Amino acid sequence: MTDISPRSEKTRLRHAAIARRKLIDPGQRERAGIALMNLIMKEFLRPTRPRTIAAYVSMGTEIPLRPTLEALLGHGMRVLVPRLGGGAADDVGWGLLTKMEDLQRPSGASQRRPDEPTGRRLPPNALESADLILVPAFAVDTHGTRLGRGGGWYDRALRHVPSGATIAGVCWPWERVATPLPREDHDVPMTAIVTPRDVTRIAPNQEPPAHPSSRYAKRP
């Protein structure tokens, strides 16, 4: 009999998601990035245009978000993306992206770090001005629970999101799941799921059914 904690279950699900994503060919990945951009522009920028959008610079197995960033900038949106700097607590925040050419690999950063915009760092509470927040996810269930990379950075940042803003988890179509994902107290729920195929809206403050790992269920 083995105790399965939410954290260890998240690790297992994360590894499974990465393994499946590695099977995606470059052409499919490129097409998904374009489809995602078209859907975001259609569903979230009309008829009411957000004033500030917090997004991210995709990397690795994530759906390419650069087409979306380019389109947002082309429509005059104020775009924020993570700026992790040296990684110290007082150096982590957001950067204002004004043009794609400003994105650079931080000095000495590993391949697991996204490119960042040049310019000054904005504090974590810069999200207080955001109307739409696009968040990378390995999976999102229908109650808004998100499976992230495991560092907890987004969960801390999302505490600054104003009431009424849309927090959209971005993932591949098969990563929108009906089975409840393990949720911990610090996890901030999404209010929408965005894939290259469609957008799913989630009513805020839904209480999901307990995932087995959330109760430290014993398995044979």
Notes on the protein architecture:
The chain is an alpha/beta fold and 220 residues long. 22% of the residues lie in helices and 20% in strands. The chain has helices at residues 6-21, 26-44, 66-74, 153-157, and strands at 2-3, 52-54, 78-83, 93-97, 103-104, 116-117, 132-136, 139-141, 146-147, 166-170, 176-177, 192-194, 199-201, 218-219. A 7-stranded mixed beta sheet has the order 4-3-2-7-10-12-13, covered by helices on one side. Strand 12 and strand 13 (199-201) form a beta hairpin. The longest helix has 19 residues, at 26-44.
Quick synopsis:
The chain has helices at 6-21, 26-44, 66-74, 153-157; strands at 2-3, 52-54, 78-83, 93-97, 103-104, 116-117, 132-136, 139-141, 146-147, 166-170, 176-177, 192-194, 199-201, 218-219. It contains four helices and 14 strands.
Properties at a glance:
single chain, 220 residues, alpha/beta, seven-stranded mixed β-sheet, three-stranded mixed β-sheet, 4 helices, 22% helix, globular, disordered C terminus
The counted number of beta strands is 14
Return the structural class.
alpha/beta
Largest pleated sheet: 7 strands, mixed
User: Can you tell me the overall shape?
Assistant: globular
| Share of β-strand residues | 15-25%
Rg calc: 17 Å
Could you give the order of strands across the largest sheet?
4-3-2-7-10-12-13
Share of residues in helices: 10-25%
Average the pLDDT over all residues and give the rounded result.
86
Order of helices and strands: EHHEHEEEEEEEHEEEEE
Note the total helix count: 4
